[in-house]
Amino acid sequence: MSVIPRPLVPQRLAESRSVPSPPASGGIDSLEGLLAQEFARRWPENTAGLDAVHRYALLPSGKLLRPHLLARSALAVGGSLDAVLPAAVGFEATHTGSLLHDDIIDQDAVRRGRPAVHTAFGPEMAIVAGNALFFTWFAALAECAANGIPHGRIVAAMEIQAAAGQQICRGVALELSLVGNLEASPETYLDMARAKTAVLFEAACSVGAVLGGGEERQVAAFGAFGDHLGCAFQIRDDLLPYRKDVRGVGKPADSDLRNRRPTLPVLLAHRDGTPAQRAVLRDCMTPGLEQREAFGRLAGVLHATGALEKAEHNAQYHVEQALRALAQIPPGAHRDALLALASDGSPVARSA
Amino acid sequence: MSVIPRPLVPQRLAESRSVPSPPASGGIDSLEGLLAQEFARRWPENTAGLDAVHRYALLPSGKLLRPHLLARSALAVGGSLDAVLPAAVGFEATHTGSLLHDDIIDQDAVRRGRPAVHTAFGPEMAIVAGNALFFTWFAALAECAANGIPHGRIVAAMEIQAAAGQQICRGVALELSLVGNLEASPETYLDMARAKTAVLFEAACSVGAVLGGGEERQVAAFGAFGDHLGCAFQIRDDLLPYRKDVRGVGKPADSDLRNRRPTLPVLLAHRDGTPAQRAVLRDCMTPGLEQREAFGRLAGVLHATGALEKAEHNAQYHVEQALRALAQIPPGAHRDALLALASDGSPVARSA
Asked: Which ipTM was obtained for this model?
C-alpha cells in the first residue's frame, strides 16, 4: 500500500497559519510528556486488583490521541491545561475500556504485541475492568469542577460523553449485526465507523472546547473536526492489515477476516467487482477456509478492484473535511498542532 | 428457612411517624405505576438493535427498587418527582446493565424465568447492551438539568454515580478473587457485598437527596440508609437458595455454588463448623461433585451450624441500622414509605 499517497495539507490552510508551528519536538512533545506522566501518577506500580489490571491496560501509554485532542481543543479556545487534564485522562480511560471489550468480542488474544487483558487476566476480569474505566471517564470529568471549571460546562460535557458512550455501543452493535454481510452498503459501514470510532474523537474535541470555554460555534467546529478525523482514522485502521510496511502493529492482521467483518475496502470490492471477484470475497468470508490463504486471496481482490485506493481516497476526503473545520477556529499554535495531527496520514502509531 | 423471623420495625421509630402511613395501595402504588409507565414509554415495542435488547432486559419492569429509593429520597427533602424522574430511570438502567454482565460472568442462562440476555442475544451483544445502559445512567442524569435541577446538584450527583460505578466494579473484581476461598473472613464478604450491591442503593438515596435539594447532613443520612438496606438485601439474596418457599425466584439456586462463591452463610459455617463440617464444605465447593448432591450436603451443614440464622441476624442488624438512619430525616409519607420498604423483610420480589 506504499503506493497510496499521504494526504496533503490543503495549501489554503497551510498558508493561513498565523503563528509559526511549534518546533517538531516542542509544544506537542511536552504535552505528550505531561499526559504520560499523569497516567503513571494515577496508575502507580505495585498495585493489586483492578488497579493492576488498569495499569497493565493503560501503561506504557501509547500516543494518547484522544487526550491530546481534548487538551489542544481546550487550549485553542483559551482554556487551562491544568483544569482540563483530568477530563483528558478520562477519554483515554474510556477508550481503553472499550478496547478491553472489543478484544473479548473479537477474540483477539494479542494487543500491541502483548497478551490482551482478557488473555492475561481472564474475560470476566476484562469485562469488569472495562466497565470501571467507563465510570472513570465521568469521575475524571467531575474532578474538573474542583479545578474551577464552571458547573454548567461540566454538565454540558457530561451530556456529550454520555451520548457518545451510547453511540459507541450502537456502533459496536451495528458492527455485530453486519457480520458476514457483503451486501451491506459502504454507507452503512461508514455509519458504523462513525458511531464506533469517530464519535469519541468528536466528543474529545467538543468536550475540550466546552470545558475550555469555547463559543457554541467553535464547539461545533471542533466537533466536526474530530468527527472527520475519526472517520479517516477508522478507515485507515481497517486498511492496516493490507499495508506491508506496518504489519504486526495494532490488532492481529486477520482479526477482521476471522470475525467476518466487512470493512470498507471489502464492501467496495464487492460492490465494484466482477461476479468472479465477488465469489472469491464470499469464499474468503465463509468460515472454514485456512486463514492465511483466505487473507491472501482477499487481499488480491482488494488490490485488483482498486478497493484499497478507493477506501484511502475516502479517508483523504475526511482528512480534508477535518482541516476545513479547523479553519473556523482561532489560529495559533494549538490549531497548528491539530492540523499537524490530521495531516499526518498514518494512523499506525495511534493504533494503541 | 421459614423459621427466620421477619425483622420488625423498631418500636421507637414506628411511634415517631408524624403522619399516617399511606394506604397500602396508595402513594407507593402510584409511584410504581408512574415508574413502570416511564420505562414503557422510553423503551417502546417494535424497536430493533440495542433498543430491542434493552426492552427485553428492562421490561416488564420488576419492583424498580432503586428508582423507588431515589424518588422517595428526593421527595422526602422537598424535591419534585417530575424533575428527578429521569435520574430514577437511570438507576434501573445501570443496575440492569450490571445484571447483564453478571449473568455472563456467572454463566447463568436464566433470569426471572426467561433466557438471560446473553442466552437470547449472545454474549457479545449482552456486553455491549450492558455498557450502553451504564452510559444511559449519565444521559438520564443530564436530562434533569433540562428539568430545572441546578447544575451544581447535577455535578454532585454525577460524582456520586461515577464513584459508585467504580466501587461496584471493585466489588465484582473482589468477588472474582474470592472464588473457592473458604478461608475468607465474613468481614471480607461484607466488604464485597457492600461494594457490589449496597453502594448502588446508597447512591440512589444520596442522588435523590442531592437532586431534591437536601442538606449535606440529610444526604449523609439517606446514604447510610441505602448502604445498610443494600447490605441486608445482598445477604438475603444470597440466602434465597436455602429458602424452600421461594425457590425458582431470581438467579438459579445453584449459581453461587456452581461458581464457587463463598457467601456469608458458607463462610460463617466454615468459621464455626467442626473439622468434619469444614471438610464437607470443601468437598461441596470443589468442582466435580454432582450439583444437586453438593447443594443438599452444603445446605445440611449450613442448617446444622446455625449459619443461615446467623447470616439472617446480620441482615436484620443492617435493617435496624437503616431504620436508625431514617430517624435523622424529615418525618412524613415519603420517610414512611422508605421505612415500610426496609421493614418488609423479604427481598424476593426485589430480586429482579
From this structure: 0.90
